[in-house]
Amino acid sequence: MAKIGRNDPCPCGSGKKYKNCHLPIEEAARAEQLRLRRAVDTLLPKVIDAARELPEAIPAALTRYWDGKYTPEQLSELDDLEERGADRFLTWYAFDYVQEDGRTLVERLASDPAGLELAEEEARLLPAWADVRLRAYAVQEVQKGQSLRVSELVEGTIYDVADSAASRRMQVGEVLVGHLVPAGEQFFIGGAVAHLTEDTRDKLRDFAELHLEALRRDRPDATWADLLRTRSEVLNHFVMQLPVEAPDPTLLDRILLQTRVALQLAGESIGIRRESPESEESPEGERAPESDDSPPA
Ligand SMILES: [Zn+2]
User: Fold this and answer.
1) What is the pLDDT of residues 77-98, one digit of tens each?
2) How far is the CA of 14 from the centre of ligand 1 (A)?
């Protein structure tokens, strides 16, 4: 866009000079966006601190997020065992894990932020964060050093993410698995993300759709958002199976095959459980052990 002079006629067609019409409005909006952007950086650590202050549910949540691979005692080493593993877990614990009162920590804080001592902008951000869940996004465009355009892997919704660090690290086609938090007109990356190579993109989408298909056997109208509200940790179960060094296409196919087999077994137990509506969610621990020689579906 050509730069408009302060004394030029305002492009809105009001007949007034730009400086007396839309310039001050635009400047105020930019300043507001900047304040919200800074509030993202100060609110996130407050949310994570609040998560650490809820240790009772951490063992059960950690087992679910890491699919039983790590014990709660390993929380302090997780950043070494998995790329930013402790940060990623705590972000998920705050945004996704449903606590005893039926709400996530962020949902609870959004409705009762009294204990957090929030600045005005932080308090304005928090309500919109209650709906944020762990999701997978494919990178569509990169403005190096500025922003990323991503599409949600299952729903296809487009988001512009103002994250200069991520825009330097990531390339078109790659996948990020993490939390996008809204702030005003923009989205930001909340907490640590897993960064996946391009070859995983279609496989992760297939993997996600298998889980949705399994949920729909029980709830035919279930959406992807419904699945994320009950078990977004499956995205991390995919991530944690990936090789750290060289790409391995046969491994990706094996993950999908094992998922298909495991979900069909889980499906039968959901069918049996229908008589007791209290326990609809089958615990992760009851999953059949996976094996390489399971018959294909
Ligand atoms: Zn104007």
Assistant:
1) 998 888 889 999 999 999 999 9
2) 6
Ligand 1 center–CA 148 separation, angstroms: 30
Q: How far is the CA of 26 from the centre of ligand 1 (A)?
A: 10
Ligand 1 centroid – CA 8 distance (Å): 11
pTM for this one? 0.82
Residues around ligand 1, an ion, CB closer than 5 A: 10, 12, 14, 21-22
For residue range 254-266, what is the model confidence (pLDDT) as tens digits? 888 888 877 774 5
pLDDT band for position 148 (cuts 50, 70, 90): very high
In whole angstroms, how large is the CA radius of gyration of the chain? Answer: 22
